[in-house]
Amino acid sequence: MARIPLLQLNEISLTFGGDPVFENLSMIVQPGDRVALVGRNGSGKSTLMKVAGGLIEPDKGEVTAGPGVTVGYMEQDPDLSGYATLGDFASANLDEGELYKVERAGEGLKFDPARPVETASGGERRRAALARLMAEEPELMLLDEPTNHLDIEAIGWLENELKQTRAGFMIISHDRAFLRALTKATMWIDRGVVRRQEKGFGHFEEWRDKVWEDEDSQRHKLNRKIKAEARWAVEGISARRKRNQGRVRALGELRAERAAQIGRQGAAAMALDSGPKSGRKVIEAEGITKVYGEKVILNPFDITVMRGDRIALVGPNGVGKTTLLNMLIGKETPDSGTIKLGTNLEIALFDQARAQLDPDMSLWDSLTGDPDMRVSGKADQVMVRGMPKHVIGYLKEFLFDEAQARAPVRSLSGGERARLLLAKIMAKPSNMLVLDEPTNDLDVETLDLLQDLLGQYDGTVLLVSHDRDFLDRVAVTTIALEGKGKATVYAGGWSDYMAQRDQDDFAESVVKSKQSAARDGSPQASAKSGLSFTEKHRLEVLPQEIARIEAEIAKLEELMSDPELFTREPVKFQKATDALVARHEKLQEAEEEWLVLEEKAGA
């Protein structure tokens, strides 16, 4: 028996006064569908969702929901006008007996339903919109960047809720880990065409590359055919002009076919100039603390940041990641302790709020009005890594077209604002990048390019992000802020941190068990009597130390697995080789020390 679709779009066409966004587009969403909607920034993903959700009327075509099907849409910038509190907005369509659903979603998504709308941040408003959608439980959920402004715990809650729901859903997200965990089909918008594959996002990049490879092959064959037909037209047409007009017309049709092909949008031409080298020691923090009122942000904390380090700060929203970041770069003063910045530092900051962009300024003025980018006497040029460039040409490198140059920043999508801010900071030489939530709203291809640039960057990187995949790809060290002032340094990215944290939790439970046994006077306690206090402590901490060294080795081996690293960056290859040898020696020493102490403890 055929299933009745949740939603059907038939022959949809839409323009906004210029080129068509979609033309004769058709798609179906079936019951239980779990779909990733992917495509480049500006390809029309959010527009398609708004058409599907009934917020935008197409120029022609039909949008049909199944009988009795409710469609819920979570937009990126929800309109909360007319509501006093976030809770009023989130519960507007619920019966009295269903209000508990908003409270439950509020706990999972970490927002306060009693917060007045007028004082709520953009992130809180988005979380309220997401809570409203989850509480209403429509048969089809349309989720536009639901993980933006969520911390990793809240993302985990949402991920678990969506795994358990019976509703169908379509998701736009830059968060690879989130999409891989949830989706079973992929819709790809590419140059106004929507393709569908019955596999989740984890298979998208392989599929995309195969489509593009086939497309390039077809284009190559078409060019060869046109070339051969054009040669015939020049060399042999005069003697057979009347008999071969059909072939001449066919040649014209081939050329028209090639002209009608829409070229793929290239990747942004992003580049980083690491500028002059900083000192070897970039930041040295000793015993730094921070308290706001009764809230402890940071207990005494020490860290030394060396040139070339890639350090990620992770933890729940509000725990103090940005505060610690600002203290480390000298923008904020600790309550106690000392922070010494290294010599010759040139810092480039990508801030979470995009505060460096004035929403009322045009893209043109955002670049030419920057004192660090201004070219004396040239209103149409900007200084880019020491060289003057025409502002339009530079904007095109970041995938903006000429028509957008004079448009206000407020007209840009979230991903376009992120690209404009990247254009500003990448124009200036730097030797330390400070990136506070850089991944929000960026498409997968731009994230890939940013990751590659960070891998090649000679300077130091400090990073705050909730994107687990990006953290794994970039970070070599992770500082985990876990609340109540606790901050712990771990080797590796997000997955390494989680593995080591689990080992730490296990080691802590073993220590508590031994302490309890010692109090009880059990045989286990007497078995440890052969160890001094210092030796007991070493035996307890060595498993964590070994795990950290193993994570460092894994990161170095991953770096050296690149077969072109030696020829491309021989200095970096040699440093990685030396570091790997040193880590293996350190691991062997730690394992031997653990064996000696374990044998002594059991004697």
UniProtKB/TrEMBL annotation:
<dbReference type="InterPro" id="IPR027417">
    <property type="entry name" value="P-loop_NTPase"/>
</dbReference>
<feature type="domain" description="ABC transporter">
    <location>
        <begin position="7"/>
        <end position="216"/>
    </location>
</feature>
<dbReference type="InterPro" id="IPR051309">
    <property type="entry name" value="ABCF_ATPase"/>
</dbReference>
<feature type="coiled-coil region">
    <location>
        <begin position="539"/>
        <end position="593"/>
    </location>
</feature>
<dbReference type="Pfam" id="PF16326">
    <property type="entry name" value="ABC_tran_CTD"/>
</dbReference>
<dbReference type="InterPro" id="IPR003439">
    <property type="entry name" value="ABC_transporter-like_ATP-bd"/>
</dbReference>
<keyword id="KW-0547">Nucleotide-binding</keyword>
<dbReference type="InterPro" id="IPR017871">
    <property type="entry name" value="ABC_transporter-like_CS"/>
</dbReference>
<dbReference type="InterPro" id="IPR032524">
    <property type="entry name" value="ABC_tran_C"/>
</dbReference>
<dbReference type="InterPro" id="IPR003593">
    <property type="entry name" value="AAA+_ATPase"/>
</dbReference>
<protein>
    <submittedName>
        <fullName>ATP-binding cassette domain-containing protein</fullName>
    </submittedName>
</protein>
<keyword id="KW-0175">Coiled coil</keyword>
<keyword id="KW-0067">ATP-binding</keyword>
<dbReference type="Pfam" id="PF00005">
    <property type="entry name" value="ABC_tran"/>
</dbReference>
<feature type="domain" description="ABC transporter">
    <location>
        <begin position="283"/>
        <end position="511"/>
    </location>
</feature>
<dbReference type="InterPro" id="IPR037118">
    <property type="entry name" value="Val-tRNA_synth_C_sf"/>
</dbReference>
<dbReference type="GO" id="GO:0005524">
    <property type="term" value="F:ATP binding"/>
</dbReference>
